[in-house]
């Protein structure tokens, strides 16, 4: 085996192991507001939010990961978020205005609220 080929192949192997390991082992810290739908916490208890979150995850299995839900909740946000709670409240309001609503167990929820419940459910399970 030629030296250049060996070095290239070895570097590729190291990168193939290191990059996914770094991605899955690093856990970024997020604002707690992402996990708690503020308006819903005043009317629901924890088990109800977990139930609603699980129902949402069953209905939309493609969003059944913390990273996917966080990406969707932060979609369109600037990297420098001053107040994520306010931003999410505006996003919820916009969901209702644009009819991005889901029905879960008889409740009409904005997509953002339902995603927050789903994220809450995934964090409660772990």
Structural summary, described in words:
This protein is mainly alpha-helical and 126 residues long. It is 62% helix and 6% strand. It contains 6 helices and 2 strands, in the order H-H-H-H-H-E-E-H. The chain has helices at 3-25, 38-41, 46-59, 66-73, 84-97, 111-125, and strands at residues 101-104, 107-110. Strands 1-2 form a two-stranded antiparallel ribbon. Strand 1 (101-104) and strand 2 (107-110) form a beta hairpin. Helix 4 (66-73) packs antiparallel against helix 6 (111-125). It is elongated. The N and C termini lie far apart (47 Å). The mean pLDDT is 82.
What number is the mean pLDDT? 82
| Largest sheet entry | 2 strands, antiparallel
Spatial shape:
elongated
Give the C-alpha Rg.
19 Å
Q: Strand order, biggest sheet? A: 1-2
> Roughly how many Å apart are the termini?
47 Å
The portion of residues forming beta strands comes to 5-15%
Oligomer: single chain
How many helices? The count is 6
Q: What is the element string, with H for helices and E for strands?
A: HHHHHEEH
Helix content: 55-70%
Taking pLDDT < 50 over at least 5 consecutive residues as the criterion, the unreliable ranges are none
How many runs of DSSP E, i.e. beta strands? 2
Overview features:
about 130 residues; mainly alpha; two-stranded antiparallel ribbon
Give the arrangement of secondary structure elements.
Elements: H1 3-25, H2 38-41, H3 46-59, H4 66-73, H5 84-97, E1 101-104, E2 107-110, H6 111-125
Antiparallel strand pairs: 1-2
């Amino acid at each position: 085996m030629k030296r250049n080929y060996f070095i290239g192949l070895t570097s590729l192997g190291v990168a193939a192991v290191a990059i996914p390991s770094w991605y899955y082992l690093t856990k970024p810290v997020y604002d707690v507001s992402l996990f708690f739908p503020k308006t819903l916490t005043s009317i629901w208890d924890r088990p109800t939010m977990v139930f609603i979150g699980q129902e949402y995850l069953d209905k939309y299995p493609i969003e059944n990961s913390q990273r996917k839900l966080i990406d969707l909740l932060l979609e369109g946000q600037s990297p420098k978020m001053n107040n994520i709670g306010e931003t999410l409240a505006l996003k919820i309001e916009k969901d209702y205005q644009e009819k991005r609503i889901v029905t879960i167990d008889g409740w009409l929820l904005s997509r953002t609220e339902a995603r927050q419940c789903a994220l809450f459910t995934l964090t409660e399970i772990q």
